[in-house]
From TrEMBL:
GO biological process: tetrahydrofolate metabolic process
Entry-linked InterPro entries: SoxD (IPR006279), SoxD_sf (IPR038561)
Listed GO MF terms: sarcosine oxidase activity
Recorded superkingdom: Bacteria
Protein name according to UniProt: Sarcosine oxidase subunit delta
Species whose genome carries this gene: Roseivivax halotolerans
Length: 109
């Protein structure tokens, strides 16, 4: 079972208390963008086997959105952080790199 800690209220919640929101750190496109850019935003998502950055909502708690870094294979959670953060915090990147030698965030694109 996946357990994430909400960075806002500090509650450790299992996945039944949370709502997934898909890939984190996407560049959003809307009205006025090219058809190709909007199509890419809507349909093209990374779905890596391994480290992934995701959006989650503490649906049955404080209700706030946050980001989580986790491994899709082992369900290992590297950390959670504010949804207002545009890039993963350096301490989480360092934790991932320490546990996954050879991993680089650039390889997730």
């Amino acid at each position: 079972m996946l357990i994430l800690e909400c960075p806002y209220c500090g509650v450790k919640a299992d996945e039944t208390e949370l709502h997934p929101g898909g890939e984190a750190h996407l560049t959003r496109f809307g009205p006025g963008s090219s058809d190709d850019a909007f199509e890419s935003y809507l349909f093209m998502r990374a779905n890596p086997k391994g480290v992934h950055f995701e959006r989650w909502r503490h649906a049955h708690g404080c209700g706030k959105w946050f980001h989580a870094a986790r491994c899709t294979v082992t369900l290992e959670v590297f950390g959670t952080y504010s949804a207002q953060t545009t890039e993963p915090p350096s301490d989480i990147i360092e934790k991932i790199a320490a546990r996954r030698p050879g991993w680089a965030k650039e390889s997730q694109a």
